[in-house]
Specification:
binds flavin mononucleotide; 6 helices; 6-stranded mixed sheet; globular; Rossmann fold; alpha/beta; 6 strands; about 160 residues
Amino acid sequence: MRAKVVYFSRSGRCERVAQVLVREIESRGVDVEHVRLEPVRGTSLVGGALLAALRVPSGLAQIPDLSGVNLLALVGPVWAGSMTPAMRSMMDALHDLDDRPVVNVVCGFHACQGVAARMMKELHARGAGIVASRAIGRLVVNDLDQLGELARELCSAALDSTQL
Ligand SMILES: Cc1cc2nc3c(=O)[nH]c(=O)nc-3n(C[C@H](O)[C@H](O)[C@H](O)COP(=O)(O)O)c2cc1C
């Protein structure tokens, strides 16, 4: 069984969330890799915020290879009430998830439920199996105990759904 944690992070918070997920997945005996998304457009704060507001993808230096991956986890911030341009490019690259379970964590100042809900809908439209999704705000992102609990919950929901 293999898992990939794909994340975008500008100021490090989502990277921390991704690391907690990696540790949780590893603790379940699953072979896990993590990949940071590198946008090719909108790399300045203003440029990135503008693309996010306009719902325009950034393009990616490299699209993560998901061949042989049974569990996908996506972690990224909310920008301008939406997913980041880098995560939008990642979503655009997901054509057929072939019923694979997905863990999705969306981090904002506040818990932006609408962004997580829209991403869940898009993931299902791309053939995802169960999508274990959560929008979290700063209070949770800054609390390692709550993050650990969140990772356990989401990974249980996603992994219990698979027979592998
Ligand atoms: C350009 C920009 C736009 C943002 N817009 C929102 C927003 O609309 N809603 C929100 O709750 N947080 C917003 N935030 C806050 C980030 O989502 C939040 O700080 C996140 O945890 C940052 O993750 P990172 O440290 O991994 O980059 C924004 C941050 C930036 C830089």
